[in-house]
Design brief:
single chain, alpha/beta, seven-stranded mixed beta sheet
Length: about 325
């Protein structure tokens, strides 16, 4: 989506290559036979048939875990809420009520299941907890969301945020309050890590998009928040930032050292560089969709950060 615009797209391109079918041929190591085991043939011929359009469900998309297109939804809202809730998808008009319901977004996900869709981008707003801890009812509702995803055989790209539109109302929380919320969310995120494809570094600015006119602009405060998001997110689940300059600018403040561009030697580890990927909400708005990368060129020695993103996405999601 364009910077500054509310999320409207029903489907967005996820951070991975398109569908692929790969056939690997080669030797497979087997343990030495034990006494009494049946003889093992030296070779075997397997005939690969594949899927034909005339097969049952042969024209349906292959299930494509953590790849391809995705739906987009609010999650963990009170049932029936209409204020601040997005409109329902067109294919559900006159079939469901206007208020929020978990049934609605699950129906949307199932609508595209025949196309192989297994992902939804899930926005969890914490707006009403700007001046206090997250209520137990909200945490239970979030757990119910993960339970529903598990039952549906899908995963989410998870983003937390406070501001649904400008001007912000009520006032967004302080840095300390957001860090407290991350501590509250940490157990439930860890418990459901198998249902989370990636965690987008939300929390800051409208829709969690880290705009330059966000309510937290101090670099040290932003570094504390990004560090808090990393601590909230279990190892093995990537965090994604919307602009590459967020990563290159804040990681040195978190790690207290210069930024280390990813390579074979340092990728897939536990450093902030290895755990943080990228997402561009406007990647399909070409030719202007990459402007968010053009103005985020710090530190200067890293050059045009589009080149950095191209090289890093060999190791982290985009």
């Amino acid at each position: 989506m364009p910077p500054g615009a509310p999320p409207r797209a029903r489907r967005a391109l996820a951070c991975a290559p398109p569908f692929a079918l790969v056939c690997l041929l080669g030797a497979v190591a087997t343990p030495a036979p034990r006494q009494g085991d049946p003889p093992v043939p030296e070779s075997a011929t397997l005939r690969y048939r594949g899927i034909r359009p005339t097969d049952p469900n042969g024209r349906r998309g292959l299930r494509n875990p953590e790849r391809g297109f995705r739906t987009e939804t609010l999650i963990a809202e009170p049932p029936g809420r209409t204020e601040g809730v997005w409109g329902i998808p067109a294919h559900l008009w006159n079939r469901v009520g206007p208020g929020f319901s978990r049934v609605n977004w699950l129906a949307d996900l199932r609508r595209f299941e025949p196309d192989g869709v297994t992902l939804t981008q899930a926005y969890c707003y914490l707006t009403e907890y700007h001046d206090g801890p997250i209520a137990d009812a909200k945490l239970r509702s979030l757990q119910h969301t993960f339970d529903a995803l598990r039952e549906a055989g899908a995963k989410c790209v998870l983003r937390f945020a406070y501001i649904k539109d400008y001007p912000a109302h009520p006032e967004p929380p302080t840095v300390e309050r957001m860090l407290q919320h991350m501590q509250q969310l940490r157990p439930i995120v860890a418990r459901n890590a198998d249902m989370i494809h990636t965690v987008e570094a939300g929390f800051v600015a409208a829709w969690g998009e880290w705009h330059v006119n966000a309510h937290v602009i101090d670099a040290d405060a932003r570094a504390r928040l990004l560090d808090g998001i990393l601590r909230m997110t279990p190892p093995g689940v990537f965090v994604q930032v919307r602009y590459p300059g967020i990563k290159t600018g804040l990681v040195p403040r978190i790690a207290l050292r210069p930024y280390r561009p990813l390579s074979d030697e340092v990728a897939f580890g536990t450093t902030p560089e290895a755990r943080i990927g990228h997402h561009d909400d406007g990647v399909l708005t070409a030719p202007r969709g990459m402007e968010g990368y053009a103005y985020a060129r710090e530190p200067a020695e890293l050059g045009d950060l589009r080149d950095l993103v191209r090289s890093e996405t060999l190791f982290v999601p985009m």
